[in-house]
Amino acid sequence: MKQLLFIILAMLVPSIAFASDAVHQTVDLTAHWVGYAAIAIFVLAYTLVILEEQLHLRKSKPVLLAAGLIWILIAAYYTSHGMPHAAEVAIRHNFLEYTELFFFLLVAMTYINAMLERDVFNALRDWLVIKGFSYKALFWLTGILAFFISPIADNLTTALIMCAVVLAVGKDEPKFIALSCINIVVGANAGGAFSPFGDITTLMVWQKGIVQFSEFFHLFIPSVVNFIIPAFIMQFAIPSGKPKAQSGKMTPIKHGGLVIVGLFILTIITAVSFHNFLHLPPVFGMMLGLAYLKFFGYYIRKSGQGEIDKSDIPTGHQIADDFDIFDKIAKAEWDTLFFFYGVILAVGGLGFIGYLGMASEFMYGELGATNANILVGVLSAIVDNIPVMFAVLTMNPDMSHAQWLLVTLTAGVGGSLLSVGSAAGVALMGQARGYYTFFSHLKWTPVIALGYAASIYVHLLINGT
Q: What torsion, rounded to 10 degrees, do the Cα atoms 18, 71, 366, 453 define?
C-alpha cells in the first residue's frame, strides 16, 4: 500500500521520485565561488536587518531577496552539473519546515490581535495605572507580569503592553522608565524561554520534536534566575516615591474578550494534545483552534453586543458588533512572518552549501557542547536568535537532552544582553524613544550577563549536562 501511494505521488509530483537520489547528490561548495557569493549575500542582507531602525527598511525585504538569490545560485550550479532535482528536494524540505511554523504563528497572532481589539490588555494596563503603586512596586509588577504573560502570548506583545504602563505612570521619572524597560525586556525573554509559545525559537525546538512540551518547564527555575538577579540589583537604582495619582476610568473589556482568552488557552491545549496523544504536528491543533475563534466571532457579530453605545442608537435599530476575524488575520505581523521565511530559506541554503556542517564541527567538535551553546546565546544578542537557532537545528549536533535544553535557554535569554538582541528590545526602543536606548541598556549589560551566567549554572546543576 505504501509503495502504491508513493508511485501515485511520484506521478503527481515527479520531483518526489528523485528525492532519495537527490538527497545524496550534494556537493561541498564552501570553497567555491557560489559559497562565497552566498555568504556575502547573507551578510549584506543581515547588515540591512540590523540597520532597520536607521534605514526605515522593513527587515523582511533584504532576507527575502537574499533567500531567492542564494537558492538561484545553488540551483544553477546543480542544474549545470546534471543534478537538477537536488536543490528542489532541499528547498521543499526547508519550505515545509517554514509552512508549519507560519500557520502556527499566524493563529497565535490572530488570537493576540483579537484580545487587543477586545481591550483585554488595555483593561490590564488601566488597572495597573489607576491602582497607584510606587515606582519600585511598578518596576516589579511589570517585570513579573512580563515574565508570566510571555509564555502564553509572545514576548514582543507582552513587552509593548507593559511598556505602555510604564510610560503612562512614569513620564516624570526618565530613569524609572529606562530601568523598567530593561527589566521588561529581560522578564519577557526569560519567560518565553520555558514555554513553546513564548518565543519563535522555543516553538521551533518543540515542533522539531527535540524537546517535549512538558520538558520545557525544566527551564522554569533557570529562567526565574535569569530574570530575578538583574531585577534585584536594578531595583536599588529605582527612584523612591510613587507617580502622581492617575485620573480616568477603567477601559471595559468588550463583549467576548474573556471568552477569547479562554479559547486561546483551549487552542494551546488542543495543539499540545495533537502532538502528545495523536502524534500529529501541533500546527493542526492550532488551525482547529482558529476554527473556535471563527465560530465565536460569528456569534459576537450576531449577538448584537459590543463597542457601540446603545444610547447612540435610534429606537428600533439593530445593534451590530463589527468584530471581523479576517481583520485580525490581516493585522498579523506579516513583516515578521516574511522575515522568518527569508531566514529559514537563506540559512537552509547556507546549510546545503556546507557552511553549517563546518560551523557545527568547530563549535560542537572543538569547543564542546556546553561552550558552544553558551556561545549561541551570546550570538543571539548580536544576530537575531531565529537564524541562530535554525542553524543549530539544521546542524543537529549529537548532544545530550540537557544540552538541547541549554541551547533552548541560551537562545531565548541571550538576546537580553543587548537592546538590539531581541524583538522586545528593538520594539521598546521605538516605543520609549528617548528614555530607553541602546546605551541605557548597555550600562546594565554586566548585570544582565550575571543573570545569564547564573541561569546556565542553575540549569546544569538541576538538569545535568
A: -120
Q: Which of 62, 92, 122 is the last residue of a domain?
A: 92
Q: Which amino acid is at 68?
A: G
Does 64 lie in the same domain as 149?
A: no
Give the tens place of pLDDT for each residue, 133-154. Answer: 889 999 999 999 999 988 887 7
Tell me how many degrees the CA angle 384-390-394 measures, rounded to the nearest 5: 150
Residue 397 has pLDDT above 60, yes or no: yes
The per-residue DSSP string of 276-334 comes to HTS---HHHHHHHHHHHHHHHHHHHHHHT-SSS-GGGSPTTPPP-----HHHHHHTS-H
Q: CB-based contacts of 37: which residues, under 8 Å, 6+ apart? A: 73
Most confident of 90-104, 217-231, 343-357, 426-440: 217-231
For residue 444, pLDDT over 60 is answered with yes
Shared domain check, 175 and 84:
no
Q: Do 292 and 249 share a structural domain? A: yes
3-state secondary structure of 119: coil
Spatial contact of 148 and 388, defined as CB atoms under 8 Å apart = no
d(CA 448, CA 175): 17
319 and 431 within one domain: yes
Q: What is the DSSP string of 25-38?
A: -----TTSHHHHHH
Domain that holds residue 366: 98-463
CA dihedral 65, 70, 71, 76 (to 10 degrees): 120
Say whether both 81 and 106 belong to one domain: no
CB-based burial, 228-246: b 16+ in 10 Å, e otherwise:
bbbbeebeeebbeeebeee
Distances from the Cα of 374 to the Cαs of 324, 398, 407, 449, in angstroms?
A: 45, 16, 7, 11
Torsion from C-alpha of 202, 203, 206, 208, nearest 10 degrees: -110
pLDDT greater than 80 at residue 128:
no
> Is 287 in the same domain as 203?
yes
Give the up-direction half-sphere exposure of residue 355: CA atoms within 13 A in the CB hemisphere.
20
Q: What predicted TM-score, i.e. pTM, was given to this entire model?
A: 0.74
Q: Judge if 81 and 141 occupy the same domain.
A: no
Tell me the one-letter amino acid at 179.
L
Are 224 and 148 in contact by the 8 Å Cβ rule? The answer is no
Nearest to 204 by CA among 114, 322, 102, 118: 102
> Residue 35 above 60 pLDDT?
yes
Structurally, the chain folds into a number of domains equal to: 2
